[in-house]
Amino acid sequence: MCDKIKINLVVNGEPVTFEVQPHVSLLRALRDNYYYDVKCGCEEGDCGTCTVLLDGIATKSCITLAAACEGHEVWTDKGLGYNDALAARLQAAFVECGSIQCGFCSPGMIVAGVHYLKHGGKADRRAIKRSISGNLCRCTGYVKIVDAIYKVAQEIERGALA
Amino acid sequence: MKEFAFVNAPTLDSAVALLGELGEKAYVVAGGTNVMVDIRVGKRNGRTLVNIRDIGALKGISLQNDEMRVGALATLSQIAASELLKEKAPCLYMAANVFADPTTRNSATIAGNCAGASPAADTAPSLLALNAIAHIVSAKGERQLNMNEFFAGVNRTHLQPGELITHFTFKPSKSGFIKLGIRNSMAISIVTAAAALELAGDVVTTCRVALGSVAPTPVRAKSVEAALTGQRLTEELLAHAAERVREDISPIDDVRATGAYRREVAPVCVKRAVKLAAYGECR
Amino acid sequence: MKKNLQLVGTAVPRHDAWAKAKGEQLYSDDFTMPQMLYGKVLRSKYPAAILRGIDISKAKALPGVRAVLTAADVPKNEDITKFGQMRDVGGGFEGLYKVLANGKVRSKSEAIALVAADTEELAEYACTLIEVDYEVTEGVFDPRESIKEGAYVVSSEDKDNIVMRTKVEDGDINAAWALCDVVVEGDYFTTPHEHAYIETEGGMAWIDENEVVTLRVGTQVLEHYRTMAKILGLPHTKVRNMSVPMGGGFGGKEDMTVEMYLALLTLATRRPVKMVWSREESMDTHAKRHPEYLHYKTGATKDGKIMAQEVSIVMDSGSYTYLTPWVQMYSTQAAAGPYQIPNVRVQSVSAFTNNTFSSANRGFGGTQVNFAYERQIEELAAKLNMSPLELRRRNIVHNGDPLPTGFIPQGHIALEELLAKVDKELNRTPKPERLPDGRKVGRAIAIGHMVYGRLTFLHDSSRVSLRVELDGSVTLRAGVPDLGGGQASVLCQIIAEELGLKITDVHPYIMDTHLTPLCGTTTATRQLYMSGNATYKCVSIMKERVLEKASSILGYPPDMLELANRKVYLINNPLVNIPFETVIGHISNDGGELELIAQFNAPFTEVPDLADIKSRLNPDLTYTCHGVEVAVDEETGQFEMLRLIAACDAGKMINKNSCEGQIEGGAVYDALWATHEDLQWRNGITKANNFSTYLIPTSVDVPDVETIILESGGGLGPYGAKGVGEPSDNSIAPALVNAIRDAIGTGLNLNKMPVTAEKILAAVKGIDIEK
């Protein structure tokens, strides 16, 4: 087995050091360090449940090399919820709109939604659907997930959310 | 057991030096979307992963002296959102917009998509149709490689050990791109087609058509081009010319579609790509 | 029953939604313990072989490898398959369950050996060092071949491959054909369907301080602990699953998954062991919806009265029995559809093959026959030159009509209303021939019926317990596995409704085999029906107790009192009231009982005569109707679903969001089954075994589901509710394919899944490629 290397990055606002094998994914590195809100569904970039914000951009952590994240900033669904008003609002909208069934896709889905809303996403169902089309959900049929993102987008447009 | 090493290349110079030293042992990682899948399934074990993700010199999309320049590390999302490319190279812009899914596009880079040399690489047919040049650097110096001479086979290119793509250049062109996938997102192509045209009135003066997923490498449809060049672009001509694509392709059966189906729909894709290039719409 | 419901029927947030949104919910893969090892399963290299020997010495010698186990290490390697039923039904209903392979290897999913090692990578590597001596044999991969005499026999334990034969017959089928003016006949095939839950199977196990083998594994069937105890040779009291919510189940976590392997490895090493399957292992290994080969022949008079239907079904059981006989009974009973046909014969046979085993998948035998009979109805309508809607209207079942088994469902049958509503919605604007971009437009409607509640001869029951705390809050204890449908939350909602509390006043403790009363399986669309009724029964006793005590304090008879807003109040004058908490204080002071357990039993029947089923098999049925509009690209054969209308009689919605969520999710779950979701089984190998090749719908592959929910009140669940979980994925697949048929104007190539773009394109060109 290859020797582990140390990587320094910022996760959910805190500087951390991970000891990882050189080839492991950011997903593995996060889960090995107990960031269990980042879920593993396929490890091939085909389901999106491991989505995190990397330097503010929605990124599938399973197809991101952990070692390449040295010096970069990662936010997960859980960290966002406790530190970011918009993300907390989107989480609440998921609860209100019945967007959550088994919940396994929810953290990644919410991060994808946060990315959409933070990059000027509008209350437009087609655009919202496109933005989450890298995240699979097998329970909901997506309707109520789109409802939640749409609701928060509307609130932003109305100026109800800073 | 997996035995990889890792080195970071924060600058272009350091990347060139590292690649020169490592030679065949190097495995360049940018976005990681292909590399991580390869590592997981056990490919290229024992290599040294060379991270180029943070090299600023390889980024950016710009127009210089009527020539488009797309950095190797331009992500598919950046290409998909580029107003410049939408105007100057619509085929590449369209390809980026149907590549994988929006989140994967945030990581995937254009050079990575080409260097992986998948027959289904979505940006490749557009780069062929645009007659794009890959600018390559190594410890030995710089060289240019036309994208039409870039691919060597399934997952193989004419890049040499130690070489790194820095950027692509091409002339702006009226162009269009069509992707046929099984799904509307996160779908690997069944057939893709890109077309770039120059028209004098309704006469086709120059034309390049390229396809993906129909041969071991992305291919030019020379028979189609020959049938179109110098002719008035009419519905009848296009229907006739598109059919000739069958002479240019050698599709196989795989998990996504049969070769027979690919053969059936390749002319349809060609027809639509040419129409997109000529008229901005395909029906 | 309460007159003015305040909470039931509303979209109140589920108790688990917050944790899931905030990333706080822990699933099977989210636990770690000191000294924890990682387990891996070595699967068979071949779909059919004889196991000659296994040499584990190299794997065992590897530093860091702590255990390597084979069949010889399992205390009792074989048992019968059980799925939580409390009654031994014996006979053909229970098949062989084998932990690790010996004798004949039956499929590539067969587990050959287990490894526990210090790291996951090491365990995986150790598996590659195990030397297995296989004698590769021919194998059989098509049940139509495997039922033949002289076919390769899949198992070492049986003489042939037949799992079960059964029949349902009504009227005089042979005489009936003479009454028919028009007859249609067709062969149908339905592909194995993959559950594709986003969470793969996994979990961990350890031995606790009292020598209890303890697991944290999400499962739809907590009662598997009993089988585990038998296999391990331990008392039932010494195997416990502190289960966790599943990241989706859909029937795929109904069979045992990692439980047995984890228990064996933790016992062998006396260290905690974790095991999580990769996506590929999950898809290669766990059960699939049964592939079915169906032949239908249907006859009708020229005015569209269906007089006769004859059906034969060959089901692929794959490598083991598991739930095959039960699924087969569902298929056989439902095969004639929700139509009143006087003369019916349905014969079915299931058989082993060297494919991955088949078992439960949402829809449980109902979806396969639904696809075939609704395709058949469409072709019959075409031949009669009658609108498919009208043909359905003339033949659907109504209240009081018996099923071909003779059983008359007690619940309401809402097909008439469902058809009318979906037709009105789908055709609210005239259908255009083509879209502006040239694509052909098609519309179609299909209906379905699907039972809820388990087979009645299994004598199903559920129990829950509740305790009113001294502050007036309520603890619910229920062994209800929650796979995401809100199974536990509706129980809280019922309690809060009846006791006049807020939903947040009720907290559920769920899914522990030994600390929560066993609710039975989260399968068969039964939890709301069974545990909902048990909860209603339990809370009603508590409510009566509260009202009696309040009556003695307020001085009014109990029937003049009601509970709401955390108060007991006088119905005629709500100003006369007493806080709920105060009443509870009085009951407690007086030594009254504040902790209760109640059991609900489903209707019980005897085991039917398989040669000719003539009795009730299920409690009741739920009826669905789907309407689809598609646009078909005639040059490529590709289609786009433009509209998807999903209608269902839910009886009564308990939680509006959860109920709609099932109906929306169910429609999308099977929306692309017929066309896109193909595992590509080739000689026992699953070619499409990951999410880049097995394509489930993304958010841009389906339109927003337009949901129509009827509330007839005619169900057997609490407040007249019916189950909707599985019915919701019936009738979508045929609605889609029939809409494609409507668009292209031919039924060519549309009977055998997968209905690919290539097949549709061939149909457009008039080429028959299904023959």
Helical proportion of chain B, percent range = 25-40%
Please work out how many helical segments of chain A DSSP would assign.
Answer: 6
CATH topology of the largest domain in chain A: DNA polymerase, domain 1
Number of E strands of chain A: 5
Q: Calculate the terminal CA-CA distance of chain A, rounded to whole Å.
A: 49 Å
Q: In the CATH classification, which architecture of the largest domain in chain A applies?
A: Orthogonal Bundle
Number of structural domains of chain A = 2
Largest β sheet strand count, sense and barrel closure of chain B:
5 strands, antiparallel
Structure described in brief:
The complex is a heterotrimer of chains A (162), B (283) and C (771). Chain A has 162 residues and is α+β, with helices and mostly antiparallel strands. In chain A, 38% of the residues lie in helices and 15% in strands.
Describe this structure in words.
- The complex is a heterotrimer of chains A (162), B (283) and C (771).
- Chain A has a 5-stranded mixed beta sheet, with helices on both faces.
- By secondary structure, chain A is an alpha+beta fold.
- Chain A has 6 helices and 5 strands.
- The relative contact order of chain A is 0.16.
- In chain A, α4 runs parallel beside α6 (143-157).
- With 283 residues, chain B is an alpha+beta fold.
- A 5-stranded antiparallel beta sheet of chain B has the order 4-5-10-6-7.
- Chain C has 3 domains: 17-25 and 461-601, Aldehyde Oxidoreductase, domain 4 (2-Layer Sandwich), CATH 3.30.365; 31-137 and 198-248 and 253-285, Aldehyde Oxidoreductase, domain 3, CATH 3.90.1170.50; 292-455 and 607-764, Aldehyde Oxidoreductase, domain 4, CATH 3.30.365.10.
- Chain C has 18 helices and 32 strands.
- In chain C, α9 (324-334) links the parallel β17 (306-318) and β18.
- Chain C starts with 16 loop residues before the first helix and ends in a 7-residue tail after the last helix.
- The model of chain C has no long low-confidence stretch (mean pLDDT 97).
- Chain A binds chain B through residues 1-2, 5, 21-23, 25, 43-46, 48, 51, 57-60, 62-65, 67-68, 70-71, 112, 115, 130-131, 133-135, and chain B through 1-6, 8, 29, 31-33, 35-37, 39-40, 49, 51, 53-54, 77, 100-104, 106-107, 184-186.
